[in-house]
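Below is how a single chain appears once it has passed through the pipeline. First comes the sequence as given, then the structure the pipeline wrote out for it. We keep one example in the README because the format questions we get most often are answered faster by looking than by reading.
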Amino acid sequence: MAIPPIYVSHLFPALDQKLVELLRSLTSEEWERLATPKWRVKDVAGHLLDSNLRRLSIARDGYWGEPFGGSSPRDLIDFLNGLNADWVKAMRRISPNILTKLLEASNQEVAAYFQSLDPRGEAIFAVSWAGEEKSENWFDIAREYTEKWHHQQQIREAVGKDVDAILGRELYHPVLDTFMRAAPHSYREVEAPENTTVAIRVSGESGGSWYLSRRNGAWALLRDEEGDICGEVDIPSGIAWRLFTKGLTEEAGRARVSFSGDAALTAPMLKMTAIVG
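Resulting structure:
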C-alpha cells in the first residue's frame, strides 16, 4: 500500500514551546557554542526566526521581498544560502532575550497559519528534495516541521541539555516519516527489476519500517512489505536524523548503519538528503 499523507500541523505548538523553554535556560556561554560546523547556537535560533518571518511574509501575506530569479536547482540553493547567511549575520546584533521573544511570537503565528490551510491544497513551495515540482500543503508543512525539529535538536546536542526531549515517538517519528519520502527521488537513477524492494528500518520506539519498491519503472515508497526484498538497511534511531540532514559524512554513516543484501540497492541510502542545500 502506498504511504499515506502525514499531518503534523497540531504538533507545532508543543515542539515550539520546548524550543522556547530551552532557549530561556541557556547561559551566555551556551548561546555561543557551535551547533553546526559554521553556525553557533544563536545563529541557528536566528535562522529559525528567519524561516518563520519569511514563511508568514510570503505565504500568508503575499510579500516576496527578494524574489528568486534563477532557473536551476543549484541557483535555488545558492539563493537560499545567501539569504540565510545575510539574516544570520544581522541577527548577531540582537540579544538572546529579544531573539527568544521574537521566536515565541512568530512561532504562534506560523502554527496558526499552518492550521488554517487545506492539507490537500497546493502548497506555495514544492518539496524539492523529494523531486516534486508541485506539492500539497501537508507535505510542505511536514517539511517545515522537520526543519524546526532538526535545528532544535542541533541546539540541544550543542549545549547538552535535555537531549532526549524531542526524541520521543510523538515528535520524532513524524520527522523520520517525512524524511523517508525523499527515498524514491534519491533512487531515481538506481535500476532494478520490477517488484524489487528495499526495506528501510529505523530502530527504537520512534522508528519504524518503510519499503522502497520498484513499480512501473519507478521507485515508490510503501507502508507495507511487498515484492522481493533484495536489500535491507537498518539505521539507529539516534543517528537517522543526522544522516538525512548532512549531519554525518557518508563514511561515518557507513560505519554505523547496517546493510544486508544487494549493496547496489542499499548503499544509495547513505546519500539521501531531506534538506535543501
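The chain has eleven helices and five strands.

See the next section for the split statistics.
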